[in-house]
């Protein structure tokens, strides 16, 4: 099967980290197609960056080889539901995937992320995903996303210390890493901490493989049906949805 793993920020070195993590866990029959968005912010660190990233995400889904599933490799899961509307197969966000994985292996987890503003966005996600019973706390490290790309930064130390505080102070049994740029840290952290450390990229790839193997596709009934056909104006006129929804053949109920 083919899984497109899309980095919605425009930093190719981060896509390389994400791709390596995805390929390390992919099954032998799975091809990982790693894509860097070609438009938008170099790092996604707020609601505006997220909103602006969605056009690049849509391009990455629509262009190139058709994939059986898509992974949105950014912890805010930007454009997740829009992506589910336009894709036929499953679409997984790394935050949603990581939180679900953590809930399977611990009764309580903490998220360790980058900036304070990202911490607040991640708290919204916890509530949106109904994870309040599982997530004990979301913690920031005050690391800007692109600092994770610098080999000489002290990011590893700061993240390790925050994870240690999460285990001791939150009583958490697992850690969710709150940035795709941390996709190369989970094994190292797990070794130091002795608890499961979940990177959403790898969790999402394995969930995507499982869903495709089960023959599950995104429901096209209700709000995840293909977008309604209509004209778009201005700079987004090329994004006007085509008429993809089949006419209903049988009325239910
Ligand atoms: C991410 N930003 O995973 C998010 C999360 C963050 O460019 N990739 C980004 O740390 O804000």
Automatic annotation (TrEMBL):
Belongs to the HyuE racemase family. This is Hydantoin racemase. Gene3D superfamilies: 3.40.50.12500. It catalyses: D-5-isobutylhydantoin = L-5-isobutylhydantoin; a D-5-monosubstituted hydantoin = a L-5-monosubstituted hydantoin; D-5-benzylhydantoin = L-5-benzylhydantoin. Its EC number is 5.1.99.5. PANTHER family: PROTEIN DCG1 (PTHR28047). It is an enzyme of class 5 (isomerase).
């Amino acid at each position: 099967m083919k899984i497109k793993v899309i980095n919605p920020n425009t930093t190719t070195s981060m896509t390389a980290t994400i791709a390596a993590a995805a390929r390390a866990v992919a099954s032998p029959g799975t091809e990982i197609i790693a894509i860097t968005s070609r438009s938008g912010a170099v790092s996604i660190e707020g609601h505006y960056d997220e909103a602006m990233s969605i056009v690049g995400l849509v391009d990455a889904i629509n262009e190139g080889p058709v994939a059986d599933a898509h992974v949105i490799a950014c912890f805010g899961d930007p454009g997740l539901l829009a992506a589910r509307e336009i894709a036929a197969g499953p679409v997984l966000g790394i935050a949603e995937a990581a939180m679900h994985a953590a809930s399977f292996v611990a009764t309580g987890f903490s998220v360790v992320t980058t900036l304070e503003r990202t911490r607040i966005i991640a708290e919204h996600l916890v509530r949106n995903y109904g994870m309040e019973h599982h997530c004990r706390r979301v913690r920031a490290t005050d690391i800007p996303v692109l600092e994770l790309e610098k080999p000489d930064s002290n990011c590893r130390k700061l993240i390790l210390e925050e994870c240690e505080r999460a285990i001791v102070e939150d009583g958490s049994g697992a850690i969710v890493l709150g940035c795709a740029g941390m996709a190369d840290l989970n094994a190292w952290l797990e070794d130091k901490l002795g608890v499961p450390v979940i990177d959403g990229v790898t969790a999402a790839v394995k969930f995507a493989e499982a869903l495709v193997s089960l023959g599950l596709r995104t429901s096209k009934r209700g709000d995840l049906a293909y977008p309604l056909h209509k004209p778009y104006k201005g700079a987004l006129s090329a994004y006007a949805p085509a008429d993809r929804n089949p006419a209903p053949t049988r009325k239910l109920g």
